[in-house]
Amino acid sequence: MGIWLKNARAAARKAQEIEQPRAEGLPVQSAAGALSDERREQLKDIDPSWCPAWPVEWQRAFHLVQLRLHAGGAPPTESGDVVH
Hints:
Mean pLDDT: 79
Structural class: mainly alpha
Strand content: under 5%
Number of helices: 3
Largest sheet: none
Number of strands: 0
Distance between the termini: 25 Å
Radius of gyration: 17 Å
Helix content: 55-70%
């Protein structure tokens, strides 16, 4: 499931990348591999946060902090604090 979701998010990002130039009437790269608007809407209906706009690094950091909090640890309080 994780690999499928990773691929779906990548396809959604590709679709987003070609939307703006297309809306401006500029030539766009191939849409091959991009998730269709219909499919993105279907996934959004299932879970609105299925494809967060935040970078993967931010999502991973958020997940690590979330795990730490659920385990009873304290959140990092200063920039640069490392969470294991």
